[in-house]
Amino acid sequence: MTTRVAPARRRGLADEVADCIREAIFTGAYPLGTQLREVELSTDLDVSRGPVREALLRLEREGLVRSEWHRGATVTTLSDDDIAELDSLRGALERLAVERVVTHASDDDIDTVERAAVHMAGARDEHTMVRLDITFHDAVYAATGHTRLNQAWFAIRSQVYLFLLTRIGLGDDDYLSHIPDEHRELAAALRARDADTALDLFAAHRAHAFELLIGTRLPSPSAG
Question: Coil, helix or strand for 68?
């Protein structure tokens, strides 16, 4: 009988390589716009070029890497259109997430969200803060109890990470000092099961970052 599927292949090594490159992007070892050369990566990671090529394709699907014929693979730099689309999609997902947490989350789930907010106060550098920021939002989506919503969040999670890396790349001094308090307020609104306040706070939280990123790219009034 003719087989209907192709033989399975082990992809463990490519997964490990993708994890290593992703972590290097998230920690700032590979800044936004960095060219990712297969030969150099295979040497640094002590693997053949095959797993590196597969890993880069995977990271491209996540939105972390872009490939162009004349440049090869580079760490994604978000355009204004990227930022606007990401912000609008994140807003739609967060609205449903907040509504679900307020009405469906257990007290233990919200405890986890609050702990994630508290941990942010201990961050001593911007990259650690970004990681804890994402961890907070992971906890919010986990608390929804909505499998497909959580999957939708993870589909854009890496790109939101890039969004935050772009923010700290602007030298935003407020990020380290103000973000922990903002997240404690978000968690408190969820704890109070106050949907209106929580939605307003989450929207303001997103709007501040969006305006900061877009505002820095607009020409000054005196330009030209």
Answer: strand
How far the first Cα of the chain sits from its last, in Å, is: 72
Which sequence spans correspond to the domains of the chain? 12-75, 80-215
3-state secondary structure of 65: strand
The first and second tokens of residue 179, run together, are 């973000």
Topology of the domain covering 12-75: Arc Repressor Mutant, subunit A (1.10.10)
Exposure string over 113-152, b if 16+ CB within 10 A, otherwise e: bbebbeebeebeebeebbbbbbebbbbbbbbbebeebbeb
Please identify, in words, the CATH class of the domain defined by 80-215: mainly alpha
pLDDT digits (tens, 9 = 90+) for 74-129: 999 999 999 999 999 999 999 999 999 999 999 999 999 999 999 999 998 999 99
Question: Is the pLDDT assigned to residue 3 strictly greater than 60?
Answer: no
Which residues, in sequence order, are bridge partners of residue 44?
none
Q: Rounded to two decimals, what is the model's pTM?
A: 0.88
